[in-house]
Design goal:
Number of helices: 5
Structural class: mainly alpha
Shape: elongated
CATH class: Mainly Alpha
CATH architecture: Up-down Bundle
Largest sheet: none
Strand content: under 5%
CATH topology: 3 helical TM bundles of succinate and fumarate reductases
Order of helices and strands: HHHHH
Number of domains: 1
Number of strands: 0
């Protein structure tokens, strides 16, 4: 007798391969960038409008919560950028084999995190 199939999918217990994690994070980072686009445009506008608005902009940026949000957006941008380059190479059939796909996935994760830390030091 065959084992009964589960009635629900336990997403916490499923172990995804690294390329799948990079793909999921690529989608999440793209959504996050789209969601916070008005916030980023507001920050840009407030920094360029006048000298007084620039002072208010600097005061808002000094808030630790805003810095954490900007750090998250910085990671989202860097991850989305490097994963997008990886996916462009995959579209032209470069690095599609299993080992190169895993290696480039790890590279995307490491590079985006390392650059986030490096640029985050300048942000903080």
């Amino acid at each position: 007798m065959t084992r009964p199939r589960p009635k629900y999918l336990d997403l916490i217990r499923i172990r995804q391969p690294v390329p799948a994690v990079v793909s999921i994070l690529h989608r999440i980072s793209g959504f996050g960038l789209f969601l916070f686009l008005p916030f980023l445009l507001y920050l840009l506008h407030s920094s360029l409008a006048s000298p007084d608005s620039y002072v208010r902009y600097r005061a808002a940026i000094d808030n630790p919560l805003v810095k954490i949000i900007l750090l998250g957006l910085l990671w989202a941008y860097l991850h989305h950028f490097f994963a997008g380059i990886r996916f462009l190479f995959l579209d032209v059939h470069i690095g599609v084999a299993l080992q190169p796909a895993r290696r480039t996935s790890r590279i995307v994760l490491v590079v985006s995190l390392v650059l986030t830390v490096i640029l985050g030091v300048f942000l903080w």
